[in-house]
C-alpha cells in the first residue's frame, strides 16, 4: 500500500506541474498578444527614423479625419446645420423655398484634402522635432517642409518632401521623402454623396420628392450604411457610415423646402 501511495503522489505532482506549466504559458501568451502593443505600432526613432516619422504622420491624419468628416468636410463649418450637437456644413443650399439648391463645394475631395493638410500641418511638423530630439548627440540638418494629403480610391496618403541629413560620427543618413499610405473609405463616401446630390439637384422641384434614396443606395453598397434625417423645417442631414471603420460622413442639404 505504501508503494501505491507513493506512485499516486508522483502522478498528482506531475498533473499539478502540467497545469501550472499550461497556466504560465497561457499567461505569457496573453501578455504578449494582448497586453503589449502590436509590433507594427512600435517604431524606434533611432534605428528606423523614416518609419517613425511615417507612423507619426499616420497618427496625425487618423486623429483629424473623424471630426472633419462628421462636420461635412470642414474643420470649422461656416454655413451649417446643427445635428447631434455637431455643426454640419451644407453641401447644397438655397435660401429660397421650393427652389433647387446649389452645390456649395463642387470640388469636395480637394476641400477635404486641404482641410486635412491645414489641420495636421503643425502636428506633422512636430514629428520632425521629435526626430531631432532623438538624435541630440548627432548633427541634424533639415530643409523646408512640403506637405500634401491626397485621397484616392480606398486610400489616404500623407506625403512630406523634406531633405534631412543625420551625421553620426562616420555614418550619414539622408532622407528626402516620408510617406504614409493607408486604407480609407473617404473617396467612396464622396462618390455616394455625389450620387445623392445629383438626385437632389436634378429633380422637378415642387413636383417630385427631391431626396436621395438611402435605402436603395445602402442595398447597392453593402459596405456602407446610409441614413437620412429630416428636420422640422424640411432640411436634411445625410449620414454615410463605413461598416468596417465606423467612420461617418455627414452633410446637410436645404433643397426644395416646403414649410408646413
What does this entry look like structurally?
- The chain is an alpha+beta fold.
- Helices cover 40% and strands 28% of the residues.
- The strands form two sheets. Strands 1, 2, 3, 8, 9 and 10 form a six-stranded mixed beta sheet that branches. Strands 4, 5, 6 and 7 form a four-stranded antiparallel beta sheet that branches.
- The longest helix is centred in the first third of the chain and has 34 residues, at 2-35.
The overall average pLDDT, rounded, is 86
Pattern of helices and strands: HHEEEHEEEEHHEEE
If you compute it from the alpha carbons, what radius of gyration comes out, rounded to the nearest whole angstrom? 28 Å
**Overall body shape:** elongated
Helical amount among residues, as a percent range?
A: 40-55%
Rounded to the nearest angstrom, the distance between the terminal CA atoms is: 97 Å
Tally the helices: what do you get? Answer: 5
User: What structural class is derived from the secondary structure elements?
Assistant: alpha+beta
What is the total tally of β strands?
10
Largest β sheet strand count, sense and barrel closure? 6 strands, mixed
* DSSP strand content: 25-35%
